[in-house]
Every structure is written in C-alpha cells, then in structure tokens.
Amino acid sequence: MTNSKKKNLAMSTPLILSNLRVGPHNFNILEIIIGSLLGDGTMERKENSLACNFAFYQEKIHGEYLLWLHREISALGYCKEEIPQIQLRRGISDTHDVRYIFRFRTFTYTSFYWIYEGFYNNHEKRRKTIPEWIKDYLSPRAIAIWIMDDGTYLKNKGLRFSTNSFTLTEVKNLGSILESKYGLSFTLHKTGVVNQYALYLPKKNMPLLIEIVKPHIHPTMLYKLGL
User: Fold this and answer.
1) Ranges 22-26, 52-56, 143-147, 173-177: which has the least confidence
2) Strand partners, 86
3) 57, 93, 145, 190: which has the fewest Cβ within 10 Å?
4) Residue 89: per-residue pLDDT
C-alpha cells in the first residue's frame, strides 16, 4: 500500500471521529493486535465511550522489533507514520530505576470495542482475560507476535509463555487450542506465585513450532526459538 493511497483512507486520518471509524478490519491487523494482547500489548478505552485503541511498547533492547511492528501497523493504515522515539520511563517506587522504551498507539475506533470487551471483561481489575473467540484468531502470525512479546526460550528444555495474568482455566484453554489447531502439546508450570501458571512447550515440540512461526519472526527475535 503506498503512502498516497493510505492517506485517502478515513481510518488513517487522525481528524476523523472515532465513531466514524467502524471497520470492517482486515485479518492482518487483527492477528497482530490479538497476538500482542496475549503478550505485552494493552488496550485503552475512552471514558464513557466505546472508542478504543491499542498501545504497544518495548524496552530499548527490543527497539528494532517495536519499530518493525510500527511499520507493519502504519502500512495497514492504523497509526501515524511518524517513527516512535525512545522515551525515558522511571520506576514508580525507585527514582533510580530508569528505563528506556519505545511506545506508540493506534488510532481510536469504536469498532475495536468487541476486542476490548473480550480481553477486559473484568473492567474493575483491568486484568486481561482470554475471550471465548480466541481460537479463530490464533493464526501462525498471531502466535509469532505472542512469542516475540512474551515467550522465553529455555535452553535444551523448550519455550515458556508468560501466562501468569490469566486464570488456570484460561491457560488450559490456550494450550488445548494450540494442540487442536497445530498439534503442539503443552504442559502447565507453576510460577511460584499462588494461582499463576505458565504455558510450557517441551523441547520435542520445538521443531514443529519453529516450522509454524519462523516465517513471521523478526530476525532480532529468533533467539526466542533458540535459533
């Protein structure tokens, strides 16, 4: 998509009111968004409104991945073209805890509310939940985004997803979906914190996982597959 064509889309014009941005949305943007929501991505909702947007951020060390995400989302017409700039972020409790991050947001859409409602149906606690319809969007690209956001390769052991914020039932459901759709067998590991569990892919399943997701992994993130 060329820049000239993208600028003619209502969805890529910041001055268009969010209630006029109603989709439908291409599956390419949905698999990026939903994959990231399983990991580090978050959603923001305007108060007393159905208007929602997505926020993406990564530490400086993963800046190339974040900038790649921005290019992908910008090319689809869902965020500003301006390249995200590095920002300083101080820790809440320790003024000496200085972090450098990259951050950007998508445009705001009322037609994103169904995703917000699925992932944040526990509105008061703001804890992300797993929506019932997640199976339809766990594509290879979505899984790759999830891994790049929140996967940890354990040398000579396998790969762990940081699913700590989800309930035991939700984590089991994710594992069942990945097994039924892709033949990937997972086990559950306790994290050491009460009622928190990580989804773990044993070493024997790594070749199949690599075959499924490698085409969608940014080169700087191949280490998360042990490559």
Assistant:
1) 22-26
2) 102
3) 93
4) 60
Q: Give me the phi and psi of 173, to 5 degrees please.
A: -65, -45
From CA 152, how far away is CA 133, in angstroms rounded? Answer: 25
pLDDT score of 111 more than 50: yes
Question: CATH says 1-122 is which class?
Answer: alpha beta
Q: Locate 143 and state its tokens.
A: 């899984």
Secondary element (H or E) of residue 177: helix 168-182
Cα–Cα dist 52/160, whole Å: 30
Instruction: Report in angstroms the alpha-carbon separations of 56 from 33, 63, 170, 188, 202.
Output: 9, 11, 23, 27, 29
Q: Which pLDDT band, with edges at 50, 70 and 90, does 98 fall under? A: low
Q: Which fold has domain 130-227?
A: Endonuclease I-creI (3.10.28)
Q: Which residues contact 193 (CB under 8 A, 6 or more apart)?
A: 164
Start-to-end CA span in the chain (Å): 32
Tokens of 201: 């892919």
Query: Is 88 a residue whose pLDDT tops 80?
Result: no
pTM above 0.70, yes or no: yes
Tell me how far CA of residue 105 lies from CA of 42, 55, 57, 71, 102, in angstroms. 10, 4, 9, 12, 11
Whether 115 has a pLDDT exceeding 60, the answer reads yes
Bridge partners (DSSP) of residue 200 are 160, 187
